[in-house]
Amino acid sequence: MKTLPLSITLLSGYAKSMQTPIQSWSELGFGLFIHVGLYSILGGVYHGKPVTRGYSEQILSHGYVSQYDYEQLTAEFTFEAFDAKKIARVAQEAGMRYIVITTKHHDGFCLFHTKTTSYNSTNTPYGNDIVKELAEACKERGLGFGIYFSWIDWHYPHALPISAHNSDIITPLHQALNIAQLTELLTNYGPICELWMDMGAPSEEQSKEVSSLLKRLQPQCMINGRIWNDFQDFLTMGDNQIPTLPLNCPWQTPASIYKETWGYRSWQERGDVHEKIAELTQTLRQVRSMGGNYLLNIGLKGDGSIVPFEEKVLLGIGKNLQREPLSVEPSPLPFLPLTVGTPSKGALLYRYSGSHYYTYKPIPTTLRWSITVEESKSYSLFWETETPIDAEQKVRVMVGSTVWYATLQKEQRTGIFSERLFLERGEYTIEVSTVGEPLTRAELRYPSLQLTIKE
Which is the most buried residue in 58, 162, 262, 410, by most CB within 10 A? Predict the structure, then answer.
C-alpha cells in the first residue's frame, strides 16, 4: 500500500472535515435498504393463498388479515438465521456504503428495544435488539447506518384506523409516541447517517418537531423528503423512480430488487439473476451519473436470512463495480450558452414540493447559462421577460463564484443586474434562481426570463 506524504494526508482529512453533512451524505452514493418484520413470516401469503394486492410488507392492510392473529406472530418470531455481520459484509462487497433498516414499519412492530411498547423484537423468542446488532455490524465494517421509521402505526390505539392509502393525519398522542421512539433511536445506536420517514400526512408543526429533534440529537444525520412540509435534507423520489427533469437539489431513488414488493414475498417471480444484476447495475450508474443516491432494497425472510437470489444479485453488482467503478463526478447540470450581445433563455432546473404524500409537484426554481469571456474587463448584465412583471420577485444571481441579489420590479419587462461586472478571461456558469436553499426555494415566476451580456 502506497503511503501518502503527511501533508497530503492531513490535507485530505482537513477537506473531509470541511464538508457539510449533505455533502458527506451525497458521497455515500449507494446503500442497502432492508425491509423486515412480522410480515416477513407470512411472506405474502394468508390462509394459504398469495395476497396479490399491494406490497407484502403491508399484508395486514391489503390482505385483510385479522389484526389479533397478525400480532400473535410475535410468538413465531425466532429469527434464528439473522446474521448482522453477514449482511454488512454482503452490502460492502456489493459496493454499498451504508445500510438503512425498517426499525418500525406501518404495522407498529419495533425491531429495537423500546420503553414505549412491549410490541418489539426483544419480547419475542428471538429476544434481541435487531437495530443494535446491525448498527454494531455497520460500525465494524466502516459502513454508515440509517433508520427507516413509519409515520403511521396500525398497532397504536390512539393512531387512526388502518386505511387504504396510508396518507393519514397524526393525532397528538400518536405524535408523542413517534417522538418518544425517535428519541430512543437517535440516542441509543451511535451515529445515524440517514433518517428515512415514510407515509402519513403530518402537519407542518409535526414535521418541524421531528426535524428539530433530529438536528438536536444527530446534527450530521440527513432526513428524507417524506418528513413532508419541506423540512427534508434531500428529496425522496417515488418508489423505483428516476427524475425526468434536471434537479438542482440533493435527491435519492429508493428502489427494490422487485418493483412488486419491498417485504419478503415467498411466491415472487425472481427472474434471471444475470439479467437482474445487469438491470440494477445500469440503474445505479444512471442515478449516480445524475447526481442522486441509490438505496436498493432487499426483503429478509421470516427467519432473518437473505433470500439467496437477492444475495447473488448484490454480490453480482459488486463484481460489476470492481470491473468498472462508478464515476466519481456526476454529469454537470444542463446550461444554455450565452454569448456577448445576444439575448438567451436559460436551462430550467427544478425541485419538488415535498408537501404531502406522493404529490411531487415539480417546481421550477433556477435558470442556468454558461459563457466564455474572451477579454478581461467590465461587462453589463441585463434581463428581460416576454410580458411585464405582474408581481415583484427577489432573485439570487450567481456569476462564477460571485453572488448577489436583485428584484424583478413590477410592471417592468427589462432591467439591469449589473453594469460593472468585472470578469477575467475564462469560462463561467451563470444562475438566476429564487432565494433560499435548493430544496425549499419558491417557484420562479418568470422561467422565460432572458439574459443579455454586453461589453
Answer: 262
Is residue 15 pLDDT above 80, yes or no?
Answer: no
Record the cell numbers describing residue 312, joined without a space. Answer: 447473488
The answer to whether 45 and 267 are in contact (CB under 8 A) is yes
- The model's pTM is 0.89
Query: DSSP assignment, residue 227?
Result: G
Of 20-34, 203-217, 238-252, 343-357, least confident by mean pLDDT is 343-357
How many CA atoms are closer than 13 Å to the CA of 22, on its beta-carbon side? 16
- Examine the pLDDT at 17 and tell me if it is beyond 60: no
CA distances in angstroms from 118 to 96, 103, 121, 188, listed in the order given: 33, 14, 9, 18
CA–CA distances in Å: residue 174 to residues 179, 398, 399, 446: 9, 45, 48, 42
CA-based Rg of the chain, rounded to a whole angstrom? 25
| Among the listed residues 83, 87, 214, 231, the one whose alpha carbon sits nearest the alpha carbon of residue 149 | 214
- The domains located in the chain, with CATH, are 20-323 (3.20.20.80), 336-454 (2.60.120.260)
Confidence category of residue 361, pLDDT binned at 50, 70, 90: confident
How far lies 376's CA from each of 252, 425, 429, 431, 451, in Å?
41, 5, 16, 20, 20
SS3 150: strand
CA distances from 236 to 195, 208, 230, 376 (A): 12, 17, 11, 43
296: Cβ contacts below 8 Å, ≥ 6 apart: 30, 31, 32, 33, 96, 255, 256, 257, 280, 284, 314, 317
Taking only the tens place, the pLDDT of each residue in 92-124 is 999 999 999 999 999 999 999 999 999 999 999
Distance, CA of 173 to chain centre: 28
Residue 372 has pLDDT above 90, yes or no: yes
Beta strands at 450-454 and 377-384: parallel, antiparallel or unpaired: antiparallel
What would the grid cell of residue 87 be? 449482511
Phi first, then psi, for residue 388 (nearest 5°) are -60, 150
| Beta strand 362-373 pairing with 426-434 | antiparallel
What's the rounded mean pLDDT across residues 292-302? 98
- pLDDT band, very low/low/confident/very high, at 10 (cuts 50, 70, 90): very low
Would you say 227 and 233 are in contact if contact means Cβ atoms under 8 Å apart?
A: no
